[in-house]
Amino acid sequence: MHLLTVDTLEQAQNKIYSYLAKNELKTEKIALTQAFQYILAEDIHAPFAVPHFRRSTVDGYAIHSLDTVGAGESIPCFLKVLGAVEMGEENRYTVKRGECVYVPTGGMLPNGADAMLMIEYAEKFGENEIACYQNVKHNQYVVDVGEDIPEKSLVLEKGTILRPHEIGVLASLGLAEVLVYAKPTVAIISLGDEILQAGERLEAGKIYDVNTYGLYAQAVKFGFAVQEYHHVKDDREAICRILENVVHHVDIVCVSGGSSQGEKDFTASLLAEISTTGILTHGIAVKPGKPTITAYDEKNACLLLGLPGHPVAAMLLFELLAAQVYRKLWQVSPIVQITAKMACNFPSADGRLTCQLVQLEREGHEYTAIPIFGKSGVVSSLAKAQGYILVGMNSEGVKKDEQVCVYLI
Predict the structure, then answer these.
(1) C-alpha angle 244/248/249, rounded to 5°?
(2) How far apart are CA 146 and CA 204, in angstroms?
(3) How far apart are CA 111 and CA 130, in angstroms?
(4) What residues in the chain have per-residue pLDDT under 50?
(5) How would you class 193 by CB atoms within 10 Å of its CB: exposed for 0-12, middle for 13-18, buried for 19 or more?
(6) Domain MoaB/Mog, which positions (predicted)?
(7) Domains of the chain, start order
(8) Residue 51 preceded by cis peptide, ω within 30
(9) Which SS3 state, helix, strand or coil, does residue 226 take?
(10) Rounded to 5 degrees, what are φ and ψ at 318?
């Protein structure tokens, strides 16, 4: 039997990165309405100030704040009403001392006014006069030009994941389209004679396909586009035909299962044949996921991943290899992390980086990480997990109450 010569996780990631970085990242311009969860491929600078006019944050009257000095519920001041500013229209008024103009929330402030009086503190007297019952400060309830976003300022950096908040900011700049990184395309191939598809009758010795669906969701979560997926029996020729076809038109091929050393484990030899690099890594010092395989086909610019058959290991290794390497290429911020204390002593795997799923409990501002014990084939552990910790390969483990970094999932 051929023994695996394992790489560290960092070595495996660096090998993948060295090949992917040779190619120019694909970009595309898409409509802002379609940009959710895409990643910005350029810095965004403000073409103009936001807001580009002085605007009110309340419904009320634009005034001179000095007119209200000493005003209160028992001693109002009186102001002449010149008229009203309509929403969406340019101001045509100039406010002098002792005068005011009605302005709705978001409306443009008249010239000369330096504050807003909330309508709740104003009372009408006749047609053209109000009583003011509030001492208003300079610039109160007013947003100045560029107070939100100064003109030419850096608004969003390249590598920003576009959530609803960022899309709203881009919309405030009048952008109908945005340049983003094209989503890398993925093909998922799940191997095994024992695999059944959802809806088929469960038989002794058979299991339902978990990896296809788990990896599909994992890929979408991290900004990839699954172009196709297949289930193939443990037949070398059938697997080879699928691989030779998909490698031409996707960016990543994920082969789930067949990465160990059994007599039906064809993944390593097939990836070696199809790729131009041969096997980059066969064996990673990570628990779970040691038999993971990586290769790269330069001709088709396609990353080839041979992932373990156990669902927990397959999904974690997809994140650690494909997702994290692409996030580095895209200059995306690291995966969200929090600090927590360990709920119990936890030993590490000898000579391997241990990736341990955890649940989180919160008390006040502090978190406690509770390990989810279970073998890598125990699928339910994925649903229970809120994050994972990485325990170093040269570490004996983590002690109870020790602070750990939890990567949220």
Answers:
(1) 130
(2) 68
(3) 19
(4) 1, 263-264
(5) exposed
(6) 187-328
(7) 9-26+182-330 (3.40.980.10), 29-46+157-181 (3.90.105.10), 55-143 (2.170.190.11), 337-408 (2.40.340.10)
(8) yes
(9) strand
(10) -60, -45
Residues 232 and 209 sit within 8 Å (Cβ to Cβ): no
Run of H or E residues at 268 = helix 267-274
Helix (H) / strand (E) element for 212: namely: helix 211-221
Mean pLDDT (the chain) is 92
Determine what percent of the chain falls in helix, strand and coil, rounding each to the nearest 5. Answer: 20, 35, 45
Which amino acid belongs to residue 17? Answer: Y
Residue type, 302: C
Residue 394: per-residue pLDDT: 82
Question: 245 Cβ partners below 8 Å, 6+ apart?
Answer: none
Residue 95 DSSP SS3: coil
> What's the pLDDT score for residue 262?
54
Q: What is the DSSP letter of 320?
A: I
Closest to 193 in 3D by CA, of 230, 231, 229: 231
The one-letter code for the residue type at 16 is I
Q: Model-level pTM? A: 0.82
Q: What is the pLDDT of residue 1?
A: 47
Q: What is the pLDDT of residue 349?
A: 76
State the sign of the Cα–Cα–Cα–Cα dihedral 258, 312, 355, 252.
positive
The span from the CA of 256 to the CA of 242, in Å, is 13
The encoded tokens of residue 374 equal 């279970």
- Tokens representing 370 are 């509770």
- Residue 240: what pLDDT? 94
Nearest to 208 by CA among 384, 375, 379, 381: 379
CA distance 373 to 357: 8
As a whole number of angstroms, the distance between CA 158 and CA 44 comes to 8
pLDDT per residue as tens digits for the range 286-338: 988 889 999 999 999 999 999 998 888 999 999 999 999 999 999 998 788 99
